[in-house]
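Can't paste images in this forum, so I'm doing it all in text. The chain is below; anyone willing to post the predicted structure tokens underneath?
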Amino acid sequence: MTLDDIQRRDATDPLAGFRSEFTLPEGVIYLDGNSLGALPRATAARLADTVTREWGQDLIRSWNTADWIGAPQRVGGKIAGLIGAQADEVVVADSTSVNLFKLLAAGLKARPGRTVILTEPGNFPTDLYVAQGVQALLPDVTVRTAPRETLLEAIDDDVAVVMLTHVHYKSGARFDMAAVTAAAHARGALVLWDLSHSVGAVEIDLNGAGADLAVGCGYKYLNGGPGAPAFLFAARALQADLASPLTGWMGHAAPFAFGDDYAPAPGLDRFLCGTPPILGVAALEIGVEIALRADMAQVAEKSRQLTALFIDRVEDRCAGLGLTLASPRAPEQRGSHIAFTHEAAYPVMQALIARGVIGDFRAPDILRFGFTPLYLRHEDAWNAVEILREVLVSEAWREPAYQVRAAVT
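Text version of the structure:
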């Protein structure tokens, strides 16, 4: 395949028009949308209107006139369209970590007599840390890990919740959601999926897979901005059996009755807690609406093309230069980011960033490259590999400035 072939592919890309909807700095190939999505052009105007008109002019009236009060359900309902769920099964609230805590505790309580949270070693740290926090808080609860190769066999009658990340944050390896969920259900356990590295990049069908619970963040492929609110999902049939451990006023059946005693709201609203962050939700809504206008089948197919092209080019152009693929080779087994190991991964990435190719490093030796189908071109993947080759061949990464670890890597 030649550069001309790649440019022709970009010229006929059905998603090409979405690139103009994002602010992308000149001279930058942004391969870190799997960690922080690019800024949609419409976000600044939306935030300005929310601040100057809704907050500045209408003040507290905007809880009604601008439907601030309904924002968690409204935006959650839109996210439902991206993950194969019903509108009343998704709500925007809090952070991914807080939502994990709420759903883990609720899942344990919904499976009395079962005391184990089962996950895999090397899961995203916040998932493990939150599970360990639940273990420390609730008597008799145990967090157990099993490698993904033997995970299904580890689901026994003690397991209440299987907690897994759909697309692994380092390798990009993707679980077969339907198969894992079916295996857990066969043993009477619930499954809690973290969709943070999936939503907006790969096809997800929670209802089709029979999923129970899920969480996800809003700042990666949904382009909601740094610290954007997260979302949580609970299957409609399960909601009445779930109780949130954080019984805040927004989760009350009648929050503005101001009664002294807590009564849970019906359905998923009981998992709301404090006052929703309206500015964050407004920004997130823009990113979600853009994603909804794209055909997810086309997004997923472009993701497969971009990641396959990148793997092929790296292995061709950078052969013998110390890189080893750490992501699944089969497209159906991975998400939309690619990992390569290198013994000097951190300084190599710093050298790339200095040359306008922004990916990221994950300890101890992972170079991670994210491919956001809505705004990346095939030519971007091609050019990024040429710059990677130059960094490795010239050993530019050995410069002392690239060895200094920043606070955020």
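The CA atoms of residues 6 and 12 lie 10 Å apart. The chain has a mean pLDDT of 97.
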